[in-house]
Specification:
Helix 2 links the parallel strand 2 and strand 3. The protein is built from six helices and five strands. The chain is globular, with a radius of gyration of 16 Å. The protein is of the alpha/beta class and 165 residues long. The chain binds adenosine-5'-diphosphate (ADP). Adenosine-5'-diphosphate binds next to helix 1 and strand 4.
């Protein structure tokens, strides 16, 4: 049986940058679980349920992908789903510092769990969920940055008075 990987993140909402990492990871691992985490420091715009729903919709045509959520330590959750690898995406040197710290901490807590970094394909290096939300707020074109389900959710969040997250 092949290796299982865990791709954790806020995904508020999922962008084409994340999708690029998901597609590539799914070619390397037999199963990839994308897990939507809370991270209150980032003050998410969408509820975790909504973020999961958008992810499921955006990944419905990919095989070997699961979408889930967890609370608590990533290392514990990884163990519970028998994942031996954590996937993270890297866009720039500024991503690297925090990512390395987290990878080392996780390694200390569970030494048989490795973090594998996938470098973003250059055409996605500029995309982040936070910039996409800024663009959405001011009514900019989103279709180059996010899949349809994210675009629809952003439109209704910022331009529909009856929005329900
Ligand atoms: P977190 O709050 O965990 O950083 P994000 O949803 O912002 O969650 O990102 C999840 C993961 O996806 C991180 O590893 C991040 O570096 C990566 N990522 C985000 N945007 C991109 C992108 N445009 N290209 C490649 N990786 C990305």
């Amino acid at each position: 049986m092949g290796k299982k990987a865990l791709y954790p993140g806020s995904f508020d909402p999922v962008t084409y940058g994340h999708i690029n990492i998901i597609k590539r990871a799914s070619k390397i691992f037999s199963e990839v679980t994308i897990a939507v985490i809370e991270n209150p420091e980032k003050k998410p715009v969408f509820s975790r349920e909504k973020r999961s729903k958008i992810l499921k919709e955006s990944c419905r045509n990919f095989s070997g992908i699961k979408v889930d959520t967890y609370d608590g330590l990533t290392v514990e959750y990884a163990k519970s789903i028998s994942a031996s690898v954590i996937i993270r995406g890297l866009r720039s040197v500024s991503d690297f510092e925090g990512e390395m710290q987290m990878a080392v901490m996780n390694k200390k807590m569970r030494k048989n769990l490795d973090t594998i970094f996938l470098m973003t394909d250059p055409e996605y290096a500029h995309i982040s969920s936070s910039l996409v939300k800024e663009v959405a707020k001011y009514g900019g074109e989103l279709s180059h940055f996010v899949p349809d389900a994210s675009e629809a959710a952003l439109q209704s969040k910022f331009h529909d008075e009856n929005f329900d997250c």
